[in-house]
Design brief:
This protein is of the alpha+beta class. Helices cover 44% and strands 19% of the residues. The longest helix has 33 residues, at 35-67.
Amino acid sequence: MNTNVATVIEPALPVVATINPFTMLQTAVERGLSVEIIERLQTMCERWEKNQQLKEFNAAIADAKAQIKPIVRNRVGHNNKRYADMAAVANGVDPILSSHGLSYRHRANQDDNKIHVTCILFHRAGHMEETTLSAKADTTGSKNDVQAIGSTATYLE
C-alpha cells in the first residue's frame, strides 16, 4: 500500500513593520495628509525622541556610576584638610564618562553680587542636564579682584 504524506506548509506570518512616530510621520507625508496632522506627528516624534534620549542618558549614568571609584585627595588646603583638585576629579571620571557617551563642561557668568557656575552634563544621544551653583567672590586673604573671582569659580566647579 502506498501512503502519501502530504507536507503541510503553513503560510508565513506577515512581517510587521516597526511602528514608531517617525514611520507614522513618513506615511502621513507620503499620503499627503493635512499640515495639522503632520505637525501633530512631528510634535509626537520630538517627544518620543526626547524620551529615548533620556532613557539612554539614565542608562549611561547608571553604568558610569557603577565604575567610578572614590577620587584620591591629592592636595592639602590652607586649613590642612585634604581635597581632590579638578585635575584629580577629571582623571578619575572623564575616561569612564566618555566610555558611556557622557561628557561635561562648565559655563560661568557673573552679575553684580555673585559668580554663577553651571555644570552641563550631556550624553551623545542629545540629552543634557544642568546644575548651577552661585557664590560671592572669595575676597579673603590677600587676593586681588581677579583672584577672588577665580578662586570662587574653581570652588563652584
